């Protein structure tokens, strides 16, 4: 019988005082005998069972808001591969949607939103019904938690303020970030109001996820790499640090992973100053640099190129092994450098999980 | 009367032995009293005179291949703003086109190509007619050179092999680089054949540009940031270093700028090992890091966020001044961190040029 106690924040084994969930041990700074592994977007279109379940909801937002379906797809990759963590199946767009913005998804085009064009339009957004609108997500968390085995950690998540703001202002994905940056540069006080609203909403959303049962949080700042160094400090580091500070004040034992994708030369400052327990790094960052410059400050997560799960074979094994050899000697969570792609081959994913879970430090 | 001699490679003043073109002085390692300025895509849609000239050609490729029109749009921003350098108006897609690949442009979607799906399809490509197909570009170079004043340097350019290969294999722009990376990872020898073809073609193309009169070269590796650290070494650093080595063997006095956009933590290795005279940096890189880590090895170019030319005003002046204060004490070329966007306001561009050209080190 496993003695872990999945209904406490600390997750500590009540009998022996040790933690059975590898992910929690790594995020608390332990160099585990072998690192935990999970993959960003592990519940996704590369899995036939996901595609089958997806068909049961008319729209992608309906899919996210139907606990029965969201629980099912969250658990699918756990059953198939035995990942060390499940991540709540949802989307970062649920926060603007719950704030009252119109959000929809177009096949192959990603999220579309009725854009918030300036500070005058912030009146269209409101925190009042946030938790009510997001109740299906919390129900999903409870559903996952009740079905998850004692070895598997449950990760909750949200988009970071800059990334969510960029979708809200641009009305969808963008390459140039012209609208959101023009606002941010031209009217920093007005833009700060949007960022502060998102800090408030994201904090509340994540705390409600904790109340429902998540044991770890990840903040996705997917578009940090679109910012200048100054901008990254102002709109990525500062708002994320504020969210982390507020959550830590109430939930000191919940580890928080920050993923400022594309932060490049700013990763070091972010690791030093954000207050996150772990920093996730994208695939451009050399693992040896991560070991030398980040891992002494925080746990690290990453950073296999997702396309290696399309290619498979020797290059997948060699690349994963290089990452393990470089980073598994310190606090480390094996993951990709960005989300898994629909073209990934589930067999390659299985081989990767086997390789990482069979790893033992030399 | 200016004594410079625009028809020699060295560009040295034949009477005094000094160089009147600021760009050439900066690229040879001189900290100029004020840095030279040009902007990537300075001949572009943000200018009404460009949009008017563009209408005279039925397609974008025709536009690039009509010397009269390409000369005209190259010179427009020089006349309007007095930039210190003109850059040949062309497109990086002319090389795959000249190799025999079908290339076309769709409004708002960028370049489209009939994709090269694997090594078996390389037979569709041939160097045989490269210079013949690109003759209009060389004629454009001669036309620009004959009209350019003695203070203004002329920059030629090409896409770097990895970036051009990614368009050739994906059949256009991509976010995930799934096809090109799957090929590169799964069949590195076959993919290397494509890279080597592009090294050969790019070298020949750039040497022919030199013969026609360009005085500086820039290699655009716009998608370097999609690569892992290992991939950046293999498919960005190595092929660019080979092109630079070959060109330097024949034209030691032609400065070469390498722009590995998004290289992040790999910028230092690239600056140290590529053989380029200058490295251009994108807007994510902190200027102080550029000064401390790159500028002692090479001249540097960059890195104002192009969206500041949409926003304008105090934030534009403050941001440009910060870059000048940090980098103008060493060999430096003022530029953007990526190409100017169509939404940029020409008045803001004028203010920026005035600020940089009026700069004097304190």
Short account of what is shown:
The structure is a homodimer of 362-residue chains. The first copy, chain A, has 362 residues and is α/β, with parallel strands linked by helices.
Describe the structure.
Two copies of one chain form a homodimer. Chain A is built from 16 helices and nine strands. Chain A starts with 21 loop residues before the first helix and ends in a 5-residue tail after the last helix. Helices cover 46% and strands 12% of the residues of chain A. In chain A, the strands form two sheets. Chain A has a seven-stranded parallel beta sheet with strand order 1-4-5-6-7-8-9. Chain A has a two-stranded antiparallel ribbon with strand order 2-3. Chain A has one domain: TIM Barrel (Alpha-Beta Barrel).
Write a concise keyword list for the protein shown above.
globular; alpha/beta; two-stranded antiparallel sheet; 362 residues; seven-stranded parallel β-sheet; 46% helix; TIM Barrel; homodimer
Q: What is the CA-atom radius of gyration of chain A, in angstroms?
A: 19 Å
Report strand order across the widest sheet of chain A. 1-4-5-6-7-8-9
Instruction: Tell me the CATH topology of chain A.
Output: TIM Barrel
The main β sheet of chain A shows up as: 7 strands, parallel
Structural class of chain A: alpha/beta
Average pLDDT across residues of chain A? 94
**What is the distance, rounded to the nearest whole angstrom, between the alpha carbons of the first and last residues of chain A?**
30 Å
Q: List the helices and strands of chain A in order.
A: HHHHEHEEHHEHHHEHEHEHEHHEH
Q: What is the global morphology of chain A?
A: globular
In helices, the fraction of residues of chain A equals: 40-55%
Say what oligomer this is. homodimer
Q: Uncertain runs of chain A with pLDDT below 50, 5 residues or more?
A: 1-11
Helix tally of chain A?
A: 16
Number of domain modules of chain A? 1
In the CATH scheme, the class of chain A would be Alpha Beta
Q: Estimate the strand proportion of chain A.
A: 5-15%
Protein chains sharing the most extensive interface: A-B, 43 and 43 residues
- The count of DSSP E runs of length 2 or more, i.e. the number of strands of chain A, is 9
Using the 3D structure, state the CATH architecture of chain A: Alpha-Beta Barrel
């Amino acid at each position: 019988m496993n003695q872990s106690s999945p209904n406490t924040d600390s997750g500590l084994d009540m009998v022996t005082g040790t933690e059975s969930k590898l992910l929690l041990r790594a995020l608390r700074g332990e160099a585990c005998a072998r690192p935990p592994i999970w993959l960003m977007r592990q519940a996704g279109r590369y899995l036939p069972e996901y595609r089958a379940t997806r068909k049961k909801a008319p729209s992608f937002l309906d899919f996210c808001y139907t606990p029965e379906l969201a629980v099912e797809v969250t658990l699918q990759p756990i059953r198939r591969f035995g990942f060390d963590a499940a991540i709540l199946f949802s989307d970062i767009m649920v926060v603007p949607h719950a704030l009252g913005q119109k959000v929809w998804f177009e096949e192959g085009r990603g999220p579309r939103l009725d854009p918030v064009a300036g500070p005058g339009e912030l009146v269209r957004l409101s925190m009042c019904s946030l938790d009510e609108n997001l109740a299906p997500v919390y129900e999903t968390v409870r559903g996952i938690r009740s079905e998850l085995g004692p070895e598997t950690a449950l990760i909750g998540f949200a988009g970071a303020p800059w990334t969510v703001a960029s979708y809200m202002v641009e009305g969808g994905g963008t390459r140039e970030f012209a609208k959101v940056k023009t606002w941010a540069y031209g009217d920093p006080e007005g833009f700060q109001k949007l960022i502060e609203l998102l800090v408030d909403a994201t904090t509340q959303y994540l705390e409600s996820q904790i109340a429902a049962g998540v044991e770890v949080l990840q903040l996705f700042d997917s578009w940090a790499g679109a910012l200048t160094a100054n901008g990254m400090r102002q709109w990525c580091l500062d708002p994320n640090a504020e969210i982390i500070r507020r959550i830590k004040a109430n939930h000191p034992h919940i580890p928080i992973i920050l993923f400022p994708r594309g932060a490049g030369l700013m990763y070091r400052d972010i690791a030093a100053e954000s207050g996150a327990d772990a920093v996730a790094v994208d695939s451009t960052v050399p693992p040896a640099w991560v070991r030398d410059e980040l891992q002494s400050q925080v746990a690290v997560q990453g950073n296999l190129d997702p396309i290696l799960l399309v290619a498979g074979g020797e290059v997948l094994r060699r690349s994963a092994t290089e990452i393990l050899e470089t980073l598994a000697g310190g606090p480390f969570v094996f993951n990709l450098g960005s989300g898994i792609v629909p073209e990934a081959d589930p067999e390659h994913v299985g081989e990767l999980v086997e390789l990482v879970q069979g790893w033992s430090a030399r």
